[in-house]
Structure formats: C-alpha cells, structure tokens
Design goal:
- The chain is mainly alpha-helical.
- The protein has one domain: HAD superfamily/HAD-like (Rossmann fold, 3-Layer(aba) Sandwich).
- A two-stranded parallel ribbon has the order 1-2.
Length: 75
C-alpha cells in the first residue's frame, strides 16, 4: 500500500506510480491498474502500466480478459 501523505505525491503525479512500480518489483507492463479517473489512467499509461478506466464491473472483467487474465465474478 502506498499512502500519498507518506510519499508526498498524489495521483496523477507520475511519482506515485513510479513508487508503485518499484514496490511491486515488477515491470510496468506486468502491472494492471484500474481507476475511474481518466487523468490517473493517462498518467499510469504513460509509464507503461496496463491501465483500465473503470466504467462497470463487467467492462473491467472484459478488459482483464483481453489482457489474458481469467477471472470468475459472482455478484
């Protein structure tokens, strides 16, 4: 977990996404980020993070499937 007040950065500042990448010990292309804010999605995408703008649960599930993530959702 990254707390904005601890790192002095908030979304969509690229700094917070760079910290997330470092903490995940992953390459940006191996990270999936979901947010409803378009500016946040754009900022993460610029760093190479797979970013999905949330509109609905089913839409996110479809996007995850496009990325090769198979999930089962039960409401």
């Amino acid at each position: 977990m990254i707390l904005s007040h601890e790192v002095n950065a908030t979304k969509p500042d690229p700094k917070i996404f760079k910290i997330a990448i470092k903490k995940a010990k992953s390459k940006p292309r191996d990270i999936i980020y979901v947010d409803d804010g378009l500016n946040n999605i754009k900022a993460a995408s610029k760093l190479g993070i797979n970013s999905i703008q949330f509109h609905s649960t089913s839409q996110v599930i479809d996007k995850l499937k496009e990325l090769g993530i198979n999930i089962t959702f039960q409401p």
